[in-house]
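Practice record 12: protein with pyridoxal-5'-phosphate.
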Amino acid sequence: MDRTATGDPAATFERLARATEPPRLAPDLAATLLTPALLIDLDRVRANAARALELCGGPGRWRPHVKTAKVPAVQVELARAGVRRFKCATTRELAVLLAALARDGVEDVDVLVAYPHAGPALGRIAALARAHPRAAVSLLVEDGASVGEVPAEVGIFLDVNGGMDRTGRPVADRAALLDAARAAGARLRGVHAYDGHRHEPDRGERERLVHAGLDPVVELCAALAAAGAPAGEVVTSGTPGFRAALSWPGWTALPEGWAHRVSPGTVVYHDLRSEELDPGGGFAPAALVLSRAVSRPRAGRVTLDAGSKALAAEAGEPCALVAGRPGLVPRTPSEEHLPVDVVAGEPPARGELLALVPRHVCPTVNLAEEAVLLEGGAPVAVAGVGARAHELGAPALPRLGELDALPPPSGGAAP
Ligand SMILES: Cc1ncc(COP(=O)(O)O)c(C=O)c1O
């Protein structure tokens, strides 16, 4: 493989559009299924998980982030493939993951809530840890003071800011990190050094920069070991950086008993953006948005019914490609409309079903309440996207039913 090639986005678009087979929908289902509809191809999920495991050399080195795999049936597929360590961000992701795996008989999981939660989320995480006593649940901290906020049943990872400038303590701030480790004591589980800012299009350049960021992380682990911290785990890298992190020769300098794991999550569904960054990497789009052509506003233009309320549009253009139709080029969506330029081939007929591969699959999945699951290329079930959106917890407020309104304010003016 050419490690330094910079992907050509237009060529990637064309190749992936050609290579992605649209789903087969039986006529009775096509006649009843409303669009836009999220489709999840479980065979491709299984193949993507197998590919990730192959690249990682087995489940021991993969801690997938389930911000992408928000459907319990998909989380269970990962566990059935042997994965026992996960990452999540939200309390709902933690709740759904633990419950879904327990229901499938898997209790001995290890979930890092890779987010520096504050406030009542800490109590919610502790309650979930108590409800799943065989699961190891841990959280990020970035200084000694916040260690005291972390409930006793929750483990601690030190969060290192390696240049993304989003969370964590700069890795050079060794004294603060050692102080946090001292405060954590035996609850220290390891170091979290996510390098999500490394998405250089040139793979050689990206690899060089990922490697350069890992040196100080391993030095920190050595300092922790020298200070008597328990042997732990270094968690790095999402989809753009994990191959580079895996290939870094410097891991041999980790102190005795320490392990390195990577945490790509997008790989489970794959998307156009990931394919651009690592063309031909062996992953296939597993989550598609089914849409219908609804309008022909002018020659050369057709509009589909999947706008930015069904298809994430924050990651650049085109926000999607059309499976099997490289001659259709999506343009900027509005909320319920996706204008598409017909640059080659026949325009789709009004009502024709088209399957879209999103540029950014994670927020796309979060937009759907339910998904149609496919096996053997055909629909087999409908599943809830259980871990989508956010929980409110149990605020001391009356909860209205779905169609309820508040009673009119007493003494208010009549309409
Ligand atoms: C902390 C953290 N870890 C891992 C990931 C997974 O990265 P990716 O979506 O590139 O697979 C993310 C993605 O947002 C993240 O924020």
